[in-house]
Design a protein that fits this description.
alpha+beta; Citrate Synthase, domain 1; 20 helices; globular; disordered N terminus; binds coenzyme A
Amino acid sequence: MPPCKLALKLQVRPTRPGGIFPVSPVGLKQSKNRSESGLLAPVVSAESGDSRVWKCLYRFLTDRGAQAHHEKDKLRMNDKTNEDAVLHLGDQKISLPVYVGTEGEKAIDISSLRKESGFVTLDPGYVNTGSTLSSVCFIDGEEGILRYRGYPIEQLALNSNFVETSYLLIHGDLPNPEQYETFRTNLRFHSMIHEDMRHFYDGFPSSAHPMAILSAMVMGLSTFYTDIEDPENDDNMDLTICRLLSKVRTLAAFSFKKSIGQPFIYPDNSLSYCGNFMHMMFRVPAEPYHVDPEVERALNLLLILHADHEQNCSTSTVRMVGSSLTNLYACISAGISALWGSRHGGANQAVLEQLSMIHENGQDVEAFMEQVKDKESPTRLMGFGHRVYKNYDPRAKIIKEACDRLLDHLGVEDPLLDVARRLEEIALNDNYFIDRNLYPNVDFYSGIMYRAIGIPTNMFTVMFALGRLPGWIAHWLEQRNNPKDRIQRPRQIYTGEQIREYPQ
Ligand SMILES: CC(C)(COP(=O)(O)OP(=O)(O)OC[C@H]1O[C@@H](n2cnc3c(N)ncnc32)[C@H](O)[C@@H]1OP(=O)(O)O)[C@@H](O)C(=O)NCCC(=O)NCCS
């Protein structure tokens, strides 16, 4: 495609005053206190358990020009900033509103661009494109920051468990003791799958990848639970969410049992979420099995660290599919498929395979690193680099420490850990990696932990899916509860043949 010759100039200048919302519905209160609200713009909040009230308020406010962000039981109002970006397209000047997120991220709203100018934007890989407003997760890739609903990942990793973190992501706040108990009880109660679903496993070859089985089985859930979700009914929605969180764990463990030819082990609801998963994975009918609390703790940690990561490939897939208003099971099944690839969740499997290959071939680590740096070679150092983190991945730091603790506890001496440490040491001191800001990501050490726990390599990405599930659900819900949500439908720049005649 020939490059466009038209000069584009973009400048940001204040043209629009920040606004107070012209609202006065009963029950609304306004706050301009940023430290209280965490928002730059005035915040409107109200309290009601009925999502219909929120939708009404949302429409009322947005119809009057306010920008709002709607969650299940919260309505956050973000006004446009008092700046506009002005785009010079030849002789044309186009004013584009600027938004600032609660952590100061700036965005130019181009939603009217095509209408006003005939132009669309081109951004392969969506490197510069914000697809949505979202309050689930905050990442600062330059500073190595990750927060779920405002809570730093380091604090959640230290103090929370996977069930509580799932509640936080899905509902927006940490649960009080009563909410936690109800959530936990629901997760326990819905652990079994319909017996007919168990027979689905007979149809898969034992060589099938567990990710393929998981994706198919999650889609299969939609055929059993046809009462799926009614957006106006919060109880129904909570039920669907708990079913999904609980049953995916069972489906994942059954996929593993299928792949090794062992009988399925039914859930034991007296165990914790992670304990029950370990029981279904590792128990055999002939032997007793005791959940090791240290391993259970490590599993909780791994799942927490994977629980959300804003608009990554699989989460964006869930949102993209969800925008067509298909059901939650179908969206999660699509997310699992997206996660499978080696550029995404499949990387933890790829890391272990790469480490094993180096170890088993007795390959020289330095020589391998030369191969990684060689532009002619397709080899990449798996578990290194990240689209967003250009400093370090905060999850990798936590995992590295946890990995040492776990291996110590289990008395495991894994030669692959030595290979990983050596690769990391070389990479962190090599200009190729330094210049490109390539650091270990979450997957570099997670595989070694899973291996120590007894989880085989082809199950690593399934573990990632289990961890990411609450994040996917939270994003799906956020999108679903936004009355202004539209079907996602990007544009393209056509580069094919121009019209030509069909040969007669
Ligand atoms: C994660 C990843 C897909 C991010 O990709 P991206 O943001 O599109 O970055 P790019 O592929 O444009 O890479 C930028 C540069 O770094 C190099 N690079 C990136 N990751 C690399 C790696 N793991 N090993 C060696 N070189 C790497 C690229 O070759 C490119 O070099 P160049 O500028 O000389 O062409 C990429 O870093 C990768 O493939 N990592 C390995 C897989 C992985 O661990 N994925 C899990 C992510 S959580």
